[in-house]
Structure formats: C-alpha cells, structure tokens
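Predict the 3D structure for this chain.
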Amino acid sequence: MLDIQFIRDNAELVQRKSGEKGYKVDIAELLRVDETRRAQLTAVEDLRARRNALTDSMKGQKPTPEQVEQGKKLKEEITSRENELKVTEEKWQSLMQAVPNPTFDDVPLGGEEDSVEIKKIGEQKTDAKDHLDFAMERDWVDFERGAKVAGAKFYYLKGDLALLENAITQFALNFIREKGFTYMTVPHMVSSRVAMGAGFSPRGDESGNEYYIEGEDLTLIGTAEAPLTGYHADEIIDEDKLPLLYAGYSPCYRREAGTYGKHTRGLFRVHQFNKLEMYIFCQPEKSKEMHEFILQTEEELWQALGVSYHVINIAAGDLGAPAAKKYDVEYWSPVDEKYRELTSCSNCTDFQARNLNIRVRRKNGSVEVLHTLNGTAVSLARSLIAVIEHYQTERGTLMVPKVLQPYMGGRTEI
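Done. Predicted structure below.
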C-alpha cells in the first residue's frame, strides 16, 4: 500500500504509473472517498470529544435530565456516524489496495517483450538434450508417480538428481551466508494479512496462484518472501540494526502449471519446488544500493556455477504490484537457443512494509516506514534444468560443476 499523502500530492503521477503497469485504478475516485473519509472521521472525533466533555461535567454529581438526554443523543449519533465511517473505510481500503507501487523512472515501458537487456555473460552453446528426456533416461525424475500420488505436475526426484539438488542448495546457502545473509527456515503457511501485505492475491481471487487452506485463514506460500516479509510485522527496528539480510529456504506451492505451452514441460513450471530466497530490510535511502547488491550476488553465484545468462530490466507492464523495479537473470538454454527465466530480484520500496506496519526508528528518534527487497538465490527446479542443459557430455554423463563437487562427495560426473 502507498502512503495516502503521497497519492494526494502526486495524483497524476500515481494514475499514470498505475496505467503503465497495466492496473486499472481511478485515483480521482480514491481521493473523493478519501475526502469523505476524512470528513466523517473529523465528525466522529468531534462527537466523541463532546461526549467526553459531557462525561467530565457530570463527574461527582448526579446528571440532570438534560445531561442524560444529551448523552443519549450523542451515543446514538456517534453510533450512526461510526457505521457510516466503517463503510467508507472499507471502500477506502479496497481502493488503496488496488493501487500498485509506482515504478522508478529507469524502468522501461511496455509489456514482457519490452524488457531491456543490460548485461550478457557466457557463451551461447547449442545442441543439448532436453532436461526431462535426459533425466528420465537415467531414472532421475518420476512425474508419472508424482501424478498418481498428488496430481499432474507433481514429481519425485531420485538418486543423483536429488543429490545434485541438495548440492546446489548447500553451495548457494554457503555462498550467500558469506555475503552476510542469516539463514532461516520459515513457516510454509501464512495468514491472509501477511500474504496480502507481501503483495500476493487475496483469498477468492481466481487470477492468483495461491493454494488456500479450507476453513482456516492460512495460505500455502508460493515463496519464502511472504513469511520473511511478515517476520517484522508491527515492529519498529532501530536504524543501527539495518540493513537486515535474511535467507529463507522453503518449498514453494503454486497453482500455475500446464497452460503455457512447451515451457511447462518437465521441471520448468510445476506446482511444488524448493527455493532459497534472499530478503533485505533497509533504510529508504539504501534500497537502490541494496537492489544492486542482490543482483550482484545472484550473478556471482551463477558465474561460479558456470551457467551462461543475461540480465534484463523488467518492463513496467510485466511487474507485479509491490515492485518499483525488478531485474531478471535468465539462463541461456542450449536446448531452446533462447534465454529462460532463472532468478529475479525486486525493490519493493515501502509498499510491503507499509502494509505490515514495519518501521525504522532513526537515530534522531523519528519513525518512518522502511524499505524491503527480495531476490532468488536458487529456484531448485529451474536450477537443475540449467545445470543439466549446460553440463551434458558426449558420453551421456553429466559433469558436476566444480563448485558443487565438494557437496557431491568429490564426484566430478554423474
């Protein structure tokens, strides 16, 4: 959620930036409701003040019939006005939640195809075997039994491929811990408040990818970003403790799968996968610097793994509501001879923190909303695809990237 004062002061900007993101919002209507809300709130507060003054005037003495009647009328009017205010507040909240975070000025305009490449690393190899064919020939993955047990797009990893996933996880965890991130395991479910506060779809929104727990106010997480965002909800953090760098490991549960053509095949788009997520809480003036730091960490990690990639600045129309700017790291696919999504990192400025009331106490004692950022270290299903496509040999084996060999018992190929 944005600061309402920012919207009041920058109505045209917020309207334009929302449209550039593809969100249909009516800022003029929001401001009309906001004006009504403020007027109603003032009226309620005035009535409460009159009631309190009346109560004070009656202390230590028996109220007169006039005072009793006046108190009765004030109570009825306060109740009526509070009910009106509640309806307006609900409408105001709904309109506020619909307004996305404005993008930074260096975010390109347009949709997915308008994202801008800013860097390219590594050679563009060709002629690799598809990861699913390669893995199934070696009995490393079983989608058939995954479907039997849980449904389509669930799977089992087996043997060396399961060990390779663990090796990537352990390497990535050690790598980002050395960058200063504190490792955390996280709850796999969050409340509606935390899910919506982090920017995910509310319960009942069919366009969302979330799984909901029937009969409970709980959502299965699609990423550790959600519980990490909620970790400091309703807290004030002293400035000298910032930035706080966390690394959350979890399974990720998503309804999306099976509707996007070829690139749903195999492990690329599934209902459940494991992921190691980076998350930062920082001072507002530090968030752009922290965004570049997360991107640099992702790049160094994938350079160490020896996977070719490029970095793109995501266009406004392809950004979700919370992000003011987002980078994607896409690996070069020797199979498809194109770049495919691997990791991303987003600067959400104060959008998530305002939703969940997370603030910083400055050294001078003032308190303000801080900024949050997130970035994927490794999304394990897609990480396995990238490694399989890059490290196949003509002998039909898979070379183990050098940095992973210590986590594979010293094995150089599998």
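The mean pLDDT is 94.
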